[in-house]
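Researcher: We're teaching a course module on how sequence relates to structure. For the next exercise, students receive a sequence and then see the predicted structure as C-alpha coordinates, so they can try to spot secondary structure elements on their own. Here is the exercise chain.
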Amino acid sequence: MEKEFQPIISQSMADFGIPGVVIELDPDEAEAWGAFEETAITEQDAMESEIEMEGFGA
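Model: And here is the predicted structure for the students to work with:
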Protein backbone atom coordinates (compact mmCIF):
# COMPACT_ATOMS: atom_id res chain seq x y z
CA MET A 1 0.00 0.00 0.00
CA GLU A 2 1.35 3.41 -1.02
CA LYS A 3 1.89 5.96 1.73
CA GLU A 4 -0.18 9.16 1.41
CA PHE A 5 1.91 12.33 1.00
CA GLN A 6 1.50 14.75 3.90
CA PRO A 7 3.12 18.15 3.24
CA ILE A 8 4.95 20.04 5.95
CA ILE A 9 3.03 23.24 6.68
CA SER A 10 5.07 26.38 7.31
CA GLN A 11 4.32 30.07 7.70
CA SER A 12 7.90 31.18 7.05
CA MET A 13 9.12 32.36 3.66
CA ALA A 14 12.54 31.12 4.77
CA ASP A 15 11.21 27.64 3.89
CA PHE A 16 10.41 28.63 0.30
CA GLY A 17 11.81 26.16 -2.21
CA ILE A 18 12.12 23.22 0.18
CA PRO A 19 10.50 20.17 -1.44
CA GLY A 20 7.46 18.94 0.46
CA VAL A 21 6.93 22.21 2.34
CA VAL A 22 3.72 24.18 1.84
CA ILE A 23 3.85 27.79 2.97
CA GLU A 24 0.61 29.28 4.24
CA LEU A 25 0.29 33.04 3.81
CA ASP A 26 -2.59 35.42 4.28
CA PRO A 27 -3.84 37.06 1.06
CA ASP A 28 -1.96 40.32 1.67
CA GLU A 29 1.35 38.50 2.24
CA ALA A 30 0.80 36.33 -0.83
CA GLU A 31 0.11 39.38 -2.98
CA ALA A 32 3.21 41.14 -1.62
CA TRP A 33 5.30 38.10 -2.64
CA GLY A 34 3.81 38.17 -6.15
CA ALA A 35 1.66 35.06 -5.85
CA PHE A 36 -1.19 36.58 -7.83
CA GLU A 37 -0.94 37.84 -11.37
CA GLU A 38 -3.90 39.63 -12.91
CA THR A 39 -4.63 38.06 -16.29
CA ALA A 40 -8.22 39.15 -16.89
CA ILE A 41 -8.91 41.27 -19.94
CA THR A 42 -10.57 44.63 -19.59
CA GLU A 43 -14.21 45.18 -20.47
CA GLN A 44 -13.05 47.30 -23.42
CA ASP A 45 -10.83 44.45 -24.71
CA ALA A 46 -13.79 42.07 -24.43
CA MET A 47 -16.02 44.43 -26.39
CA GLU A 48 -13.38 44.87 -29.10
CA SER A 49 -12.90 41.12 -29.46
CA GLU A 50 -16.67 40.68 -29.86
CA ILE A 51 -16.74 43.31 -32.58
CA GLU A 52 -13.80 41.66 -34.37
CA MET A 53 -15.65 38.32 -34.36
CA GLU A 54 -18.75 39.66 -36.12
CA GLY A 55 -19.12 37.97 -39.49
CA PHE A 56 -17.46 34.75 -38.28
CA GLY A 57 -19.33 31.63 -37.26
CA ALA A 58 -22.40 29.79 -38.42
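Model: If you want an answer key for the exercise: The chain has a mean pLDDT of 82. Strands lie at 8-10, 21-23.
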